[in-house]
Structure formats: structure tokens, C-alpha cells
Amino acid sequence: MKKYDKRFETLLNYVFEDEGGFNDDPVDRGGRTNFGITQDSYNFYRDRRGIPRDDVRNITKTEAKNI
């Protein structure tokens, strides 16, 4: 398991509070997002690791943190 700096963990909690939860707002240029991660970014992350693509709605906090 990757170890993160304590400041990173603290700030990430703020991001998850603000950006957490699935969103598919048609006026948001990012499109489908969850935990601040767009579907395109999630696809790229999983493609690079040889993991089958999935709906960003299913992203875990651990995956979001790693991205």
C-alpha cells in the first residue's frame, strides 16, 4: 500500500468532501465525475494498469487517491 504525506491525506479529505459523490451535470465540461475524477481520467488510469474499464460511478476512494 502506498504511503502518503499527512498533508496530502488531510487535503484529500477536503477534496472528497467537496467533490465526493457522483455527478453528471450537462453544463460541467468534465462530464461524468466521482470524487473529482472524470470518466476519461478513470478510463486512462485503468487502461494503463490493464484493468477493465468501469463506470466512474463505481470508483473507490483508494483508486481516486491513487489517481
Structural features, described:
The protein has 67 residues and is mainly α. It has helices at residues 6-19, 39-48, 61-66; strands at 33-34, 37-38. It has a two-stranded antiparallel ribbon.
In short:
The protein is mainly alpha-helical and 67 residues long. It has helices at residues 6-19, 39-48, 61-66, and strands spanning 33-34, 37-38. A hairpin with a 2-residue loop joins strand 1 and strand 2 (37-38).
Features:
3 helices, mainly alpha, 6% strand, two-stranded antiparallel ribbon
Mind telling me the C-alpha Rg? 12 Å
State the helical fraction.
40-55%
The unreliable regions are none
Beta-strand percent range: 5-15%
The spatial strand order of the largest sheet comes to 1-2
Major sheet: 2 strands, antiparallel
Overall shape: flat
What is the N-to-C order of secondary-structure elements (H for helix, E for strand)?
Answer: HEEHH
For the record, give the distance between the C-alpha atoms at the N and C termini, rounded to a whole number. Answer: 14 Å
Please count the helical segments: 3
Q: Output mean pLDDT.
A: 89
Show the helix and strand layout:
Layout (H helix, E strand, L loop, with lengths): L5 H14 L13 E2 L2 E2 H10 L12 H6 L1
Antiparallel strand pairs: 1-2
